[in-house]
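Contributing new records

If you add data, match the layout below exactly. Sequence lines come first and carry their own label; structure lines follow with theirs. Keep one chain per record. Anything else will be rejected by the validation script.
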Amino acid sequence: MKALIAGFTHSKGIAKQSGKPFDMMAVVALTPAGNVNKENFSKLGVGYEAVELPVAESAKSALLTLTYPCNAQLVIAHEVFAGRLQAVVSGVEHTIPLIEQPMKN
């Protein structure tokens, strides 16, 4: 799946309400904003919308090395999460950085 990737996030901790641990990774991809016009709902979209895609552990190291934003080919796999089959980003290929990053001091 070709995507314009804005970033990568990895969040982990203890949920306030349930007290259960969580560990979530996501790619933030930008998709063209769409228009919707239904009987009870309408939306005008201009530019891009951010969409979070779940990430498998196997893709983390590759995502940490990218320069963002970039165009890339996302490799999609399927994993069971909460008893349901879910599409996840399992890798990334053919990346093209879109802007030059400033040097860190």
